[in-house]
Amino acid sequence: MSLALLAMVTWLVMIVFANIPKRFTLTEIIFLYFVSSIMTVTVFTLFDENFQWVTATRNVEKSLALDICRFVEIPLLLIMSSEVLINSSLRVGWRWTIAATICLFLTVNDWILVQFGILEYRQWNYVFAFLDYGMFIVLMAWTARWFVRLDKGGS
Fold it and tell me: Cys-Cys with 75: which of 6, 36, 71, 143 at CB 3.0–4.6 Å?
């Protein structure tokens, strides 16, 4: 059940990602995908294994659902938020509103992972999850801005 639900949510994220207009080049999207994957997997592994704040499940179905979430869904949402913050023609307030909506979606997704028993936090807090994903979004936007400026000859 958890795999089916997260696969459906990930599929919807992929559909939205495919349909939004993108001003990033393919190279920039691939670079941002790898950076976001490395960043999220490193942070989650640090919390899961080293600090033992989060206990990951040992069930195969739930582990696969967690991997789909970490390797597909979260990086695509981070790239979408970077696209909105860096390349959108919207006003600054609307850009941050859309980024906060994506951050809220990631927080709800984290809540779903906790409710299905895929992740077991010692004490899960939605405010800290929201701030954590907000930090991911800001770091990805700064990384995207830096990488796009490198192509234009800036530093």
Answer: 36
